[in-house]
Amino acid sequence: MKTLHFPSPIQSITFDNHHFYLKRDDLIDADFSGNKARKFYYFLQNDFPNVTKLVSYGSAQSNAMYSLSVLAKMKGWEFEYAVDHIADYLKEHPHGNYKAALENGMSIIRKENISSNYPESVLFIEEGGRQKEAEFGLQALAEEIISWQEDNDVTPLNIFLPSGTGTTALFLQKYLPSHKVYTTACVGDEHYLKEQFLALEKDENLHPVILSLEKKHHFAKLYKENYKIWLKLQQQTGVEFDLLYDPLGWRVLLAYPEVFSLPTLYIHQGGVLGNESMLPRYERKYKDIDKDIL
Ligand SMILES: *Cc1c(COP(=O)(O)O)cnc(C)c1O
């Protein structure tokens, strides 16, 4: 069994002349990294002697799909993944997460073939790992943060991370009750994210704070502002961020100076393998961008 790199390092970065701390969960492992490594850690750490197959569903380029393919391979399980739709181009020219997951042995199935009643030999995982087992690895993340603060005398500390299903932000807030966890909705809108929080935790006082930009934002759409801030992050910090969540995350964080008036920790949740499919799209669409004046 391969060993994962815990605790992930925390480094200091300067972005747009502001100081931030950066939790490098993208460095946990080359294959099994970021918040999916945290969310699926429970399944990695425990033995499931009866399980022979993993089944899940979601989009054909998702980070969760790729991480599950790594998990299944590590465990010696079959891996079936249901999608609604795969673009013809992707089918004919596999790339990014999809290609890597196929190489790990993933089989694509139809959504109709997902059962509501699996035998014990099948482990079914919700889209994006949105389930209670995620709590296990996210508690460990919270503990890493607290022990880093103690070792480095960093109190107080605000936390910021961009959300999809909100599972990571919610459980982090649960295990960091004396911190404020701030997030933004990347996949749906604020109302969607609030509902996700409520499904996991009824007490709203225990929810992260949701921050937003005024303009509506659509997931996976190519925004010039997102591309620009992603390039600028790379130039100024030397770190590659993901192209789906982090650009909006950083734009939102910079729009709320009251958050980073206290020392602030940004969580890098991995996902850079997905850039392989997003980056060429951005490069084609904004080929005239002047990288010297972002
Ligand atoms: C999955 C993912 C997210 C969203 O995580 P949630 O727990 O669903 O909010 C954010 N960033 C990256 C890079 C991801 O892969």
From TrEMBL:
Cofactor(s) of this protein: pyridoxal 5'-phosphate
KW Transport (keyword) present: no
InterPro entries associated with the record: ACCD_DCysDesulf, TrpB-like_PALP_sf
Classification via Gene3D superfamilies: 3.40.50.1100
Superkingdom of source: Bacteria
PANTHER family: 1-AMINOCYCLOPROPANE-1-CARBOXYLATE DEAMINASE-RELATED
Name by which UniProt lists this protein: 1-aminocyclopropane-1-carboxylate deaminase/D-cysteine desulfhydrase
